[in-house]
Structures
1.
Amino acid sequence: MFDYRVPALTRRAFLTSAAAVSAGAMLPLQPTTYAADIRQFRLRAGLGRAQIAPEPHGDTPIWCYDGSLPGPEIRIRQGERLRVAVENKLDEETTVHWHGLRVPNAMDGVPHLTQAPIAPGETFAYEFDAVDAGTFWYHPHHRSFEQVGRGLYGPLIVEEADPVRVDREVTWVLSDWRLTKTAEMREDFGNRHDMMHNGRVGNTVTINGRVPDVFQVRKGERIRLRLINAANARIFGLDFGSHEPVVIALDGQPVDPHAPESGLVVLGPAMRADVILDMTAAAGSRVSVIDRFYEDLEFRLVDLAYDDNPLRQKAPDWPVALPPNPLPEPDLASAGRHEVTFNGGMMGAMVMQEMGGSMGDMGKDPSDQMGGMMGMGGMMNMTHSGGIWFINGVAAEGHIMDPMLTLARDKSHVIAMTNATAWHHPIHLHGHSFRVISRNGKRTRYREWQDTVLMSPRERLEIALVADNAGDWMFHCHILEHQAAGMMGVFRVA
Ligand code: C2O
Ligand code: CU
């Protein structure tokens, strides 16, 4: 019998029938009204079913928006105002966070911090201007490790007034699932092992909510591929084979067009990349897209299947650079400096000790040392606190907390972050995009704007931003089990 699953981290090759790749439940979302630059939508969070594993497996019970997986693609133009009425048909509270969008604090969707959670049966209307063009997504911020993990997420695309020319735009929402042999959801959400290690990594990887087989393309075609990693914990590192992807935006924000480092498009949870993909292989051929992020666990994500008829013989030479978004440029000379240290998890104390010797400038700030010590203390006492992960020595419990940092409003800030753990962490700041300016003391080549930055074990990096959005903003790891186990804090911009 057919096995769609990936034991451990990888996925076995699978066979599938043509029927299994026929259209899923992706319904285009129609605006209910279109009036004077306000675009209105409704989203209903509720129970559903989706054909995640290929037939002959049955469908899987999920939680989702509007009965579809992923949720409907919300697509608007830069500068438009968006209004989304979110109706909660779940049996528990929820909220919606507009990941990466620079919205007013009250529209940020963080339960208790920016709004009361939406109770079952109730509706909450979010409304904000789409300041930046780019590839974004939406998801709950209440018990995300389970609500997102069961399928509550969707893409949100803000189009440039003047987009780059392509033949086709495609959105791939990547995710994974932990399914049983009969394609039921494994119910072990938020278990302690996942929380202490690398989170809920699934055994079934999907594109737009289903295990893919082939993706049809034509020779000579130029595609703008919008990649969104909606997984709880899985990091993707996509190898497009003989193709030469050009990254033109990261986390929605334009970047100097470039080939991805080491050839892999790497996406931690919540991260996005816009990639220009010229279809340069032979008509009638097939090229596999391979995920190579985890060593020795590579697997075939999907095959690009070339039509027999080319669209054109050579790739077009249209320009690929995107127009910039209106982001304030941080002034490094006058910037305030802040230190943030992450610790905890399995082997956390060990890494802290090991890094202690090499974290020279951390030693100058006694509060960081404290953070480290408290982190280790917390490790030892974790049965009492429940905390497993710590930021500057504190493990968050729920969204109600005092700010860990206050950033002077409209001023530039550099935040130096140290990952004193043995694990990767995609670190996300709400309400702002920041430039990643250095990694391990080395200036980054593209000084890319991000809202979620992937930190390797033991890595030190610096980000810079102008804190121009007033309010209390979440700062957390987007491995949702890490977030739930303490790895979050609040930055106050005032
Ligand atoms: Cu995408 Cu605080 O989250
Ligand atoms: Cu993490």
2.
Amino acid sequence: MSTDADRVEPQRSKARQLPSLGLVDRFDRPMRDLRISVTDRCNFRCVYCMPKKVFGRDYSFLDRNELLSFEEIERVARISAAHGVRKIRLTGGEPLLRRGIEGLIERLAALRTPEGERLEIALTTNGSALAVKAAALKAAGLDRVTVSIDSLDDELFQSINDVRFPVSRVLDGIDAAHQAGLGPIKLNMVVKRGVNDGEILDMAAHFKDTPFTLRFIEFMDVGTTNGWSLDEVVPSSEIIERIGAVFPLEQIAPVVPGEVAKRWRYRDGGGEVGVISSVTNAFCGTCNRARISTEGKLFTCLFADEGHDLRALLRGGADDAELASAMASIWGARDDRYSEIRSELTPGLRQARNRIEMSYIGG
Ligand code: SAM
Ligand code: SF4
Ligand code: SF4
């Protein structure tokens, strides 16, 4: 069923272009970062993302012809680059499950900005296939990977991924990615109180003095299937306090505008950690991320309840100018700041909304 948000009107672009920023939204936020979900499938069933009771045997994933093809993704990415996108991140589901992903990476690596620069191409993965694929991904043109790893305790790790996948294979994958030159590598740990918050210090100690940057992510209320509750969120401030009590830390300035992680460095020179405070310290003011879902809907916020159907345009014969105009009008109308207004949402309202799942849109 088509909704207002679905309807895309290519001819009515009122989007503004600021000379230094390219396309901007209603709050002057540029579109810099494009996250593309290449599959809604995953070989893990992380309890906070794809719980088995929802994503079980009977769950119907998208058919192949519903996914955007590599040609379609390349077209959207090319137009996005003309609108100001400088970085593309492939995600999912588990992006390494998409057959021939290297071919997509080759196409994206060949794109250029209006100034003739190549885009940065990154990928977020659960790491399960990295040991096998890292070298081919690098050869195809991938710049960097971010690997999700929620615990070093094998029993706990297996209970979180819920498919008995051993943490040692993810660690092997991280090493393979490092050997292949897919760095700097970031590691994401979603922290859930009472589940893996006891692992914070072990994780920090393990990855201190390594080339990897560990980032702690507050458990978010994405989707409607992960049974989110504020009590399970460990605020970033607490995480920094806990680590800092053992390994003294100092905050450092962001390198890139719109960077979501707050960065802290070990005072003894042992590298840095990051915290992503999506719940306790919203960063909507600088949010420059657009997201394309697996079947080609453009979402201007991770917490949007509906996306804009670009696939209908792509398959309906729209030319590049129409597609560019449609994307410009969607971004130009953007006024999302969900995290900033989250505190105003009542539990009743939360239930009423039809929010998208993390496994569908990617992180
Ligand atoms: N499968 C890949 C992976 O796990 O890295 C890519 C997709 S996954 C949806 C992207 C990121 O979202 C992962 O780092 C995952 O831990 C994070 N994530 C999923 N559900 C989350 C939630 N409720 N709160 C915070 N982060 C979440
Ligand atoms: Fe799969 Fe990533 Fe979600 Fe875990 S977080 S279920 S690995 S998509
Ligand atoms: Fe961006 Fe939406 Fe997250 Fe705010 S809530 S930071 S607008 S994705």
